[in-house]
Amino acid sequence: MIKIVLDCFGGDRSPSANLDGAVLALSRFQDLSLILTGDETALKQGLSGKDYDRSRLEIVHAPEVIGVDEKPTDAIRLKKDSSMMQAVKLLRENEDIAGMVTVGSTGAIVAAAMLRIGRLKNVIRPAFCPIMPKIPGGVVGVCDSGANVDITPAHLQQFAIMGSLYMENVHGIEKPRVGLLNIGTEEEKGDQLRKEAYKLLSNTPNINFTGNMEARELLAGGYDLVVCDGFSGNVLVKSTEGTALQMLRMLKSRIYSKNIYKLGAAIMKPMFTEIKEFMNYQNYGGSVMLGTRKVVVKGHGSSEGTAIAKCIEQAREMQVSSLGEKIEQELPEYVKG
User: Where are the beta strands (DSSP E) in the chain?
Assistant: First the structure.
């Protein structure tokens, strides 16, 4: 049985979305058991009337909630009875718990991962790696996307190694093509960090480095993994998601502006539905944190039940693939300190 702890508070739709996701995940995976952390009364009320295997779900009372506007280090130190910190404590202290899922404060979970859960051997810094859909099909990972703002070329090298192992072992992509996010594709482009990282990645065995990548190429299909600092990666992911969302809204607005457009839209409705589902981040879960001693998955704060279930699935897949062990085996050869 694979045991995952789910922080049920901190998101825009918590705890209802978390509970919907938990029930959905339990129905999909018979080898899964869940521990829910949060206000016990609210969780029991939310579960009332839902159909699920009660033998595979338990609740740990945690009455406090860490807000997104709180200073992360203060929050994890002072709010020990919060749903997130109780989940972190369970994860750290119980070897039989494989991982945790949260949609709460990004800053708090990054701090907790570093200070409470810890890193795998030889990992300099853990990194978030969300996935996004590629237009030709399949997915592309973005590593890092929010965990590390100030980095070195050695960090980017480790992101490439860990991300490649993730895309290969969890998403089944053989020899994933790795691109370095930059302002141009030429080798000499970018600041000193990117130039030094380019040389380092070019001389890193066992990763399939294909050179620099411009942001506009993220979904085009030429890359399976993009490595970048956490600031640039977060902007890349959110701007891509935001552009897709606004384009869909514009199409909807224009369709209803003229009768002839409405007629054409009626015929093309299935295609519009497919495009909407293709770009819907709810279908792709959250960001796995690569390099932590235990599995951590951070979902969008606005996640609905479908996305929560996908996050739980991601945590399960990370455990099934033994990714942490593979990262520890691969990194010693490359660690730069």
Answer: 2-7, 32-38, 57-61, 97-102, 127-129, 131-133, 139-143, 177-181, 208-213, 225-227, 287-290, 295-298
